[in-house]
Design a protein that fits this description.
By secondary structure, the chain is of the alpha/beta class. It has two domains: about 120 residues, Tetrapyrrole methylase, N-terminal domain (Cobalt-precorrin-4 Transmethylase, domain 1, 3-Layer(aba) Sandwich); about 120 residues, 2-Layer Sandwich (Methyltransferase, Cobalt-precorrin-4 Transmethylase, Domain 2), CATH 3.30.950.10. The chain is about 30% helix and about 20% strand. It has ten helices and ten strands. Strands 3-2-4-1-5 form a five-stranded parallel sheet, with helices on both faces. Helix 3 crosses helix 4. It starts with 15 loop residues before the first strand and ends with a helix. The relative contact order is 0.15. Bound molecules: S-adenosyl-L-homocysteine. The site of S-adenosyl-L-homocysteine (SAH) has 24 residues, from helix 5 and strand 10.
C-alpha cells in the first residue's frame, strides 16, 4: 500500500496546522489531517471532534479541549489564539483541529489572522464541511441541474447581538438553504423564511450528528419546524436543509448505504 505519510509535508516544530476534521466519521478525514495527527505534539480541538478522530493522534500527543459549546467550560476566542501562539513559540507541532472545514463557520479565519500577525508559520487544511456531508450522507445532492444552480450556506447563530441574517431576503433568492448552528433559533428562522415567500410545504431535512453513531434524520415541511423545534425534537449539532433538494432523498433512499453502516461505527 502507498505510504500515505509521503503525501503530506513534514510537520515542523513551531508550526501550527489549522485542519478540518470533517463531520465526525474518521473515514472522512483527509490524508493531510491523518498525517498531522500522526506528527503533532499538541492537538487543540473543538467539542465536535469525536473520540474516533482523537484516538488517531500519536501516542504522547497532548490533547487540549478548546471548544465553545453551551454547557461546557467556554474558552474565549482570544485565549485560544494566544494558546496556539504560545505552543508554537514553545517549539511544539501544533494541530488546531476543527470540525468540518476550518473556514466554514469555524472561526478559522480569525485564528489564521492571529497567527499571521504573530509571525507564526502555519498551514490550512480544508475539511469536509458538515453541511455538505449531512446531505450526501442521505443521498441529497447540494445541487442538481433540475432544481438549483446555487446553494446558500447560512448560520442561525450570529456573533454579535442584533446582528442577524436577512432570512426573508435569503428566501427570495430561491436557492436551497443549508443551515448551520440553527437549532436554538429554528422556529423564528422558519417563520421568517415563510414570510419571505417560501411555501409552508417546502421540504426540509434535519440531520443530527451526521456521519457519527448517533446520527438521526428528520424530514418535515418547513411550517412544521417551529413546533418540532419547540417540542425539543431537534438537538444540536444539526444541519437543516431547506428547499427542493431535500425531497430528492425519496428517489434513492432505499438504495443509499451510508458508510457508517458499512464500517459499523
Ligand atoms: N466548520 C464546521 C461548522 C462549525 S459550526 C463545518 O464546516 O462543518 C458548528 C455547527 O456545524 C453545528 O452547530 C452544526 O450545525 C454543524 N455540525 C458540525 N458537525 C455536525 C454533524 N456531525 N452533524 C450535523 N451538524 C454538524
Amino acid at each position: 500500500m502507498t505510504d500515505l505519510s509521503r503525501l503530506s509535508p513534514v510537520f515542523s516544530p513551531g508550526e501550527v496546522w489549522l485542519v478540518g476534521a470533517g463531520p465526525g466519521d474518521p473515514g472522512l478525514l483527509t490524508v493531510h489531517a491523518l498525517n498531522a495527527l500522526a506528527q503533532a505534539d499538541a492537538v487543540v480541538h473543538d467539542a465536535l471532534i469525536g473520540e474516533g478522530v482523537l484516538s488517531l493522534a500519536r501516542d504522547g500527543a497532548v490533547l487540549e479541549y478548546a471548544g465553545k459549546r453551551g454547557g461546557r467550560p467556554s474558552a474565549q476566542q482570544d485565549a485560544i489564539c494566544e494558546r496556539l501562539i504560545a505552543l508554537a513559540r514553545a517549539g511544539k507541532r501544533v494541530l488546531r483541529l476543527k470540525g468540518g472545514d476550518p473556514f466554514v463557520f469555524g472561526r478559522g479565519g480569525e485564528e489564521a489572522l492571529a497567527l499571521a500577525r504573530a509571525g507564526i508559520r502555519f498551514r490550512i487544511v480544508p475539511g469536509v464541511s458538515s453541511g455538505l456531508a449531512a446531505l450526501a450522507q442521505h443521498g441529497v445532492p447540494a445541487t442538481t441541474r433540475d432544481t438549483n444552480h446555487a446553494v446558500i450556506l447560512a448560520t442561525g447563530h450570529c456573533a454579535a447581538d442584533g446582528e442577524s441574517v436577512d432570512w426573508e431576503a435569503l428566501a427570495r433568492a430561491g436557492a436551497p438553504i443549508v443551515l448551520y448552528m440553527a437549532v436554538a433559533n429554528l422556529g423564528g428562522i422558519a417563520e421568517a423564511l415563510i414570510r419571505g415567500g417560501l411555501a409552508p410545504t417546502t421540504p426540509t431535512l434535519v440531520v443530527h450528528g451526521a456521519t457519527t453513531a448517533r446520527e438521526t434524520l428528520l424530514e418535515a415541511p418547513l411550517a412544521q419546524l417551529p413546533s418540532l423545534a419547540d417540542g425539543g425534537a431537534i438537538a444540536s449539532p444539526a444541519i437543516v436543509a431547506v428547499g427542493a433538494i431535500a425531497a430528492f432523498r425519496q428517489a434513492i433512499a432505499e438504495h443509499v448505504q451510508a458508510f457508517r453502516q458499512a464500517v459499523g461505527s
